[in-house]
Design a protein that fits this description.
This protein is of the alpha/beta class. The protein is built from eleven helices and eleven strands. Helix 2 packs across helix 10.
């Protein structure tokens, strides 16, 4: 039978091993994002975000890609995702389905975001009204800047979506919308203005073939949403720590600037659920959120 001293030494050893347990054996903070761009670009960006947050929060962080916008909302609802970079619409959907979930932060550019409408050069399309009788593609069905707000402005301009030539397409992402319009598969399409500017900057758009002909009025869009289950797991005040880490991303630090550049932003800023009331109202009006 072990002596008391042996039992004490055993307990101390067990405690020491537990304290020294590798981070990978701890429950990770699982982050994700709507798949609105090329998967390789997303993997690069969120790999860097994971490393940054892990260091700032002192917890293991894992990036988990999703197949589509709806999958991101479902995984958030079931608790498989802790922190997700959502568009305005998917953020509203996620928060409505998970009581206690809140918007934490958005990019500086998301306080006044826009969608753009593009068409092939020489198409003769110069306004939304000109789209009557033409083929048209959105991005994802659940995209704020690729579907929700564009439809909000397009429908009244052409007297109803039925006045397009055929049903609108859904490309699945902003990059695919650019490719389809450039190829002439559709006469026109709508997408995220920031993605458009980014593709122009990196010379991946052939502006001799496709151009912007309309930009929507401003609206709030992308934002980080935290699942309340993460706060239960990592402790009270964890949401405040995540927000602080995001707001602390500093463009004067080369590594952090790379993250901000990939987001197309100069800074992250604090946001609130109330900023997305307009998005929720439009979503209910077109049936994207149940009344």
């Amino acid at each position: 039978m072990p002596s008391i001293s042996q039992l004490v030494r055993g307990a101390l050893l067990a405690a020491l091993l537990t304290a020294c347990r590798p981070a990978e054996q701890q429950h990770a903070l699982v982050i994700s994002a709507i798949p609105d761009q090329d998967p390789e670009k997303l993997q690069r960006l969120y790999g860097k975000v994971s490393m940054y947050l892990s260091g700032a929060l002192h917890v293991p962080v894992e990036y988990r890609p999703v197949t589509d916008y709806t999958a991101s909302v479902i995984a958030f609802k079931t608790g498989d995702l802790d922190l997700v970079w959502y568009g305005g619409l998917t953020g509203v959907q996620a928060r409505l389905q998970v009581p206690g979930a809140h918007a934490l932060a958005q990019r500086d550019i998301d306080t006044a975001f826009h969608a753009v409408f593009i068409t092939r050069q020489g198409s003769g399309i110069r306004s939304l009204a000109d789209l009557k009788g033409h083929t048209f593609t959105f991005g994802s069905e659940m995209s704020t800047s690729g579907r929700l707000m564009p439809q909000f402005y397009l429908g009244p301009a052409i007297g109803g979506m039925e006045n397009l030539r055929g049903a609108p397409g859904f490309s699945g992402s902003h990059d695919k919308t650019i490719a389809l319009v450039t190829a002439g598969t559709y006469d026109a399409g709508a997408l995220n203005a920031q993605v458009w500017k980014s593709r122009i900057a990196d010379h991946t758009v052939d502006t001799t073939k496709v151009a912007v002909f309309y930009m929507t009025p401003a609206f709030h869009d992308y934002h980080w949403v935290l699942n309340p289950a993460a706060e239960q797991r990592f402790g009270a005040g964890f949401g405040d720590k995540v927000r602080a880490a995001l707001l602390a991303l500093d463009p004067s630090d080369p590594t952090q600037k790379e993250i901000l550049d990939l987001f197309g932003a100069h800074r992250f800023v604090e946001t609130a659920d109330s900023n997305y009331i307009q998005i929720e109202r439009v979503a209910r009006a077109i049936g994207a959120v149940a009344n």
